[in-house]
Write a structure and sequence with these properties.
9-stranded mixed β-sheet, globular, alpha/beta
């Protein structure tokens, strides 16, 4: 079954108010081509689930698409804080649920197992239980031990970026898999963007690097440089020069509107062209 679709077709499958899990981690392999398409759409009131979030969360908040964020961390690592995310938290403009990396994964795993929650020792003895209303303590019915119940996280949609895919929706991840496989299994619909789409017989040669299986995938989009300005190991590293440009624009009202016009309110091909084209990006960022 051929599952190759366009970016516009992906966005058409995401309704207002949808719960969207986004793969990758921090400045690594975020599905930014799909995120930019979502940012320039008319969608609103989205509920985001991320483990370690970065520019994808900040951009969607900055374009008014988000109602709530479930996260373990959102920022730009050594490059600084996420401006729109920070302002929204300080102003109380959106709902936020601060989880931990492990509990986000446990919540997705509960959805995969089709149970309402998973018990864990994680977060016991920490301030997470005091600051987050998402969790509750329970007693082990067999031994009486105190445990934390992590509620299931059930995304309507998962957005992931992979190194390679085939038309059937199998996806190869050559670097860190992060929590992408959990997102794909837990979501009702999963969409991939890929640096390149290969014939199935070629993709099969990657063996254990096929992390995402076609049975989980609704559609796949070919998008070279589709993770930019995050990295996509081992193809290319994060574009810290563009991170600086983004952060400067996000801290300035007029600069932000100029950034959106140049880099977001355009299709992916024009986005790459605005950055100097694939050759220029390759010269700067190829590993």
């Amino acid at each position: 079954m051929n599952k190759v679709i366009s970016t516009d077709q992906v966005i058409a499958e995401i309704p207002n108010g949808a719960t969207v899990a986004i793969g990758g981690s921090s400045l690594s392999r975020k599905p930014m081509a799909l995120v930019r398409a979502l940012a320039r759409s008319d969608r609103r009131d989205l509920r985001l689930i991320v483990n370690v979030g970065g520019p994808e969360v900040d951009l969607l908040i900055g374009t008014g698409k988000v109602a709530e964020v479930i996260f373990a961390f959102v920022g730009f690592e050594v490059m600084g804080l996420a401006p729109h995310f920070r302002r929204a938290r300080q102003d109380g403009a959106l709902k936020f649920q601060e989880w931990t990396e492990y509990t986000v994964m446990a919540g997705l795993d509960a959805a995969i197992k089709r149970v309402p929650f998973l018990p864990t020792h994680s977060t016991l003895g920490t301030d997470v239980l005091r600051h987050s209303a998402a969790f509750t303590t329970i007693q082990d019915p067999f031994h009486g031990e105190t445990l934390v119940a992590v509620p299931a996280l059930r995304p309507d949609v998962a957005l992931l970026h992979v190194n390679l895919a085939d038309p059937q929706g199998n996806g190869v991840v050559l670097g860190d898999g992060h929590m992408d496989a959990l997102c794909a299994k837990a979501a009702r619909k999963t969409f991939l963007s890929a640096e390149q789409i290969l014939l199935p017989e070629r993709l099969q040669t990657y063996g254990r690097d096929v992390h995402i299986f076609r049975t989980m995938v609704t559609g796949v989009v070919e998008a070279p440089w589709g993770a930019h300005f995050t990295g996509c190991a081992p193809e290319y590293r994060a574009d810290l020069q563009h991170v600086q440009e983004y952060l400067g624009a996000a801290r300035d009202g007029a600069g932000w509107h100029e950034y959106l016009e140049r880099y977001v309110y355009v299709n992916h091909r024009d986005y790459v062209r605005a950055l100097g084209g694939e050759r220029t990006l390759g010269e700067r960022l190829r590993v």
